[in-house]
Structures are given as structure tokens and as C-alpha cells.
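User: Let's play a game. I give you a shape written as C-alpha cells, and you guess the letters that built it. Ready? Here's round one.
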């Protein structure tokens, strides 16, 4: 999920799509497209089917999405 429409490589507007976040907050999805993100190692990853949610304050990428794009991520857990 991505709040910035100007950073999409491809973009398709959507009409009246809604998703629910983990806290049951309802978010309106206004588009879907492809975007790229540069990793800390300097590798550019392309993500498809990215939802455009304009009122989000941060980008959101599911860990499963990262894994499916062969990305590694450090995970620190305090037990």
C-alpha cells in the first residue's frame, strides 16, 4: 500500500474499493499499479499490484510480499 500516486510506474484508477486494516480501520483504495523501491543494498525491486491509498501516512509492505520478491529483511524480536 502506497500513499504517493506520483511514484507509480503504471497506474489504473479504481472506483469505490475499500480495504480494512488490522485495527478494523476502513481505507479507500483509489488506484492500483506498479512501483519500485530501492533497498539498502542499492538493489531496485519492482512491486506489482500495489494499492494506492492516499490518506496513509506511511508505506506498507507485507512481509510475505517481500519474501515472494526474494527480499531479505532483518527481524528483531524481543522475547
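Assistant: Ready! My guess for every position:
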Amino acid at each position: 500500500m502506497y500513499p504517493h500516486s506520483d511514484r507509480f510506474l503504471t497506474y489504473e484508477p479504481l472506483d469505490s474499493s475499500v480495504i480494512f486494516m488490522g485495527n478494523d480501520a476502513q481505507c479507500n483504495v483509489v488506484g492500483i499499479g506498479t512501483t519500485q523501491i530501492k533497498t539498502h543494498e542499492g538493489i531496485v525491486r519492482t512491486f506489482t499490484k500495489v494499492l494506492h491509498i492516499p490518506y496513509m501516512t506511511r508505506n506498507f509492505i507485507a512481509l510475505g510480499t517481500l519474501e515472494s520478491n526474494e527480499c531479505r529483511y532483518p527481524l528483531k524480536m524481543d522475547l
